[in-house]
Amino acid sequence: MTENALIERLKESIIAYDEDEARKVAEEIVTADIDPLKVIEEGISSGANVVSDKFESEEYYLPELMLAGEAMQAASEVLMGGLSNEKRDEMEARTVGTAITATVFGDIHDIGKNILSMLLTVNGFKVIDLGRGVDSMEIVQRAREYKADIIALSALMTTTMPSQKEVIDILEAMETRDEFIVMVGGGSTSLLWADEIGADGWAEIAPKAVELAKELVEKRRRG
Ligand code: B12
Q: Which of 1, 89, 148, 194 makes an SS bond possible with 100, Cβ 3.0 to 4.6 Å?
């Protein structure tokens, strides 16, 4: 089966909320040595968008959304496993910087955040993943505790985006805003939103987020 056909099969398995098939195809993709990052964008994310449209048009309801989420999670775990093995050999153990990652308060969507955490790790960052639905104050406290370079905040819903702003507001109130690079992202966010709340960076997809994270850390070190 060609590369594109496998990616299409993965996308279809997500739309059909078929976790077993999604895992199976992801395993075939890893064996076929296809770039996992391409698969995340063209298979998983584009499948997620179709599921999202079906949810909005009420063709799908919450159970379908949940099953599709499990299929996405299963596939991304297999793909990330493949990626980290491959990258582990290539990359020296080095720390580019320390990053705190979290899905913000009130939001349980963590598939994208988990992908971001994994990509930051294989690109040499020390990552402290605080999980999902994390309280803003806890994020700030942990960032200070670990002397993090980056705070990366994921939000998938319009109702939880304000928690990204809340983290920045707390940093400002504590007069520690300058100590951290704050990056925001996740389905419902945009560059405009990032600018509006005074974040340092935004990216639409995790691989771009990693590039930007590296650039921002580098820039900060140069002063
Ligand atoms: C799967 C899913 C679920 C799963 C989540 C499973 C899990 N463990 O994450 C389940 C079924 C649990 C779920 C629940 C709900 N969901 Co939901 N869900 C989705 C869905 C279909 C896909 C999300 C996803 O994983 N995408 C794939 C990943 C790879 O993409 P991503 O997260 O965007 O991440 C990428 C980038 O954004 C970026 N990125 C991510 N984080 C960060 C951080 C930084 C710093 C940067 C730079 C980049 C970055 O990199 C990632 C990889 O490239 C979306 C639709 C969509 N298209 O987003 C709806 C969606 C987000 N859900 C929605 C809703 C409404 C809900 C519920 C409220 C439903 C309900 N009535 O209960 C609950 C929420 C409960 C809560 N309190 O959080 C709405 C939100 C609407 C809105 N705009 O506010 C959406 C948009 C669906 C819709 N069209 O209505 N959901």
A: 148
pTM: 0.87
CATH architecture observed for domain 3-90: Orthogonal Bundle (1.10)
Domain ranges of the chain: 3-90, 97-222
CATH superfamily for domain 97-222: Cobalamin-binding domain (3.40.50.280)
Distance CA 163, CA 113 (A): 15
Could you list the pLDDT tens digit for every one of the 223 residues in the chain?
Answer: 789 999 999 999 999 999 999 999 999 999 998 988 788 878 988 898 898 789 889 999 889 988 998 999 899 889 888 776 666 565 545 578 999 999 999 999 999 998 898 888 877 898 999 999 999 999 999 999 999 999 999 999 999 999 999 999 999 999 999 999 999 999 999 999 999 999 999 999 888 899 999 999 999 988 8
Residues with CB under 6 A from ligand 1: 40, 44-45, 48-49, 51-52, 55-56, 62, 65-66, 68-69, 72-73, 106-113, 115-116, 152-154, 156-159, 183-188, 202-203, 205-206, 209
Burial 40-51 (b: 16+ CB within 10 A, else e): bbbbbbbbbeeb
